[in-house]
Structures are given as C-alpha cells and as structure tokens.
Amino acid sequence: MEKDNKNINRGKILHEVLKNHPRRIKDIVEDAGYKYGTFYKHKNNPELSYEIIAKYGKVIGKDFSVEFPEMMDFPSLALIQSHFSNNGPIDLKKELEELREKYSSFLHKHNAILEANIELREENIRLKELIAELKVNKAKK
Questions:
Q1: Any idea what the Cα angle at residue 60 is, between residues 59 and 64, rounded to 5°?
Q2: For the segment 44-95, what is each residue's pLDDT rounded down to a tens digit?
Q3: Burial 43-62 (b: 16+ CB within 10 A, else e)
Q4: For residue 60, what are the CA distances in angstroms to 19, 25, 29, 48, 72?
Q5: Phi and psi for 126 in degrees, rounded to 5?
Q6: Helix-strand-coil percent breakdown of the chain, rounded to 5?
Q7: Is the whole model's pTM more than 0.85, yes or no?
C-alpha cells in the first residue's frame, strides 16, 4: 500500500477535485490564502504537502483524507467544521431573518435607484429635445 501512495500525484488529485468544484479555482485559491500563480506550482507538485491540501479542503469543505488516508495520521489537518454547524435552529432562524431584512433593505434601495435612473433618462430625453429645438430656432434666425 505504501508503494502505491508514492505513485500518487497529490497536485494532480487536488487539481481534479478543484476542477470539478462548482466554485472557480481562482476564488478557491485566493480563499486558501494563495496567489493564483502559486496554484500552478501546487497542481504540478506530485509531493504537495498535506498542509497545503488541507487548506484547500477547508475552503471547499472537503476532507481530503478520503483521497489521502495518511492525512488522518495528522489530527491538526482535520477538516474544521464551519461556524454554521455549531448553530442551533434558533440561531439559524435569527440569521435567516437578518438576511431577509438586509435583502429587503437592499431591494428598496435598488428600486429607488432604478426610479431615479428612469427619471434621469426622461430628463435627458427632454433636454436633448430642447437642444434640438434651440438648434432649429438658431438656424432659422
């Protein structure tokens, strides 16, 4: 079994997992604390460290110990649960209500901006028509 693990290219496996993830690779890389260019070094490194792999795993909520069972030997690399899993139903309801209030507030602001935009467009049309009339009147004189 140990001999098989030596032939596993950790970087390629990481790349495959991230490629199939719904989020963009660039966003995942940045959330893991790396620059996008660094990811190319990571994906081409057959002996990529488990610490780096674990960072990516924490960002996407994936336990890479499935792909790399030897990661279970390092408890510090265990996937940290997100803060949502510690919340009870009451906390989630409160958070949901707060998000609804924020959404409603943003929606009202958005609608006000849309109405102002419409008014400005109409005013712009009126001003263009006025300018056109003034040009016609000036040309007649």
A1: 100
A2: 999 999 999 999 999 998 988 888 888 887 776 665 444 444 455 677 788 8
A3: beeeebebebbbbbbbbbeb
A4: 12, 10, 10, 18, 18
A5: -60, -45
A6: 75, 0, 25
A7: no
Tokens of 60: 């996407």
DSSP per position, 26-39: HHHHHHTT--HHHH
Question: For residue 79, what is the DSSP state?
Answer: P
How far CA 115 is from CA of 107, 110, 120, 122, 137, in Å, comes to 12, 9, 9, 11, 33
67 burial class (0-12, 13-18, 19+ CB within 10 angstroms)?
middle
Task: Give the pair of three-digit tokens for residue 91.
Answer: 């906390």
Question: For residue 111, which of 119, 97, 124, 100 has the smallest C-alpha distance?
Answer: 119
- Contact assessment for residue 17 and residue 62, using Cβ atoms and an 8 Å cutoff: yes
Structure tokens at 136: 């016609």
Q: Specify whether the CB–CB gap between 52 and 10 falls below 8 A.
A: no
Residue 72 CA: distances (Å) to CA of 50, 62, 91: 10, 13, 32
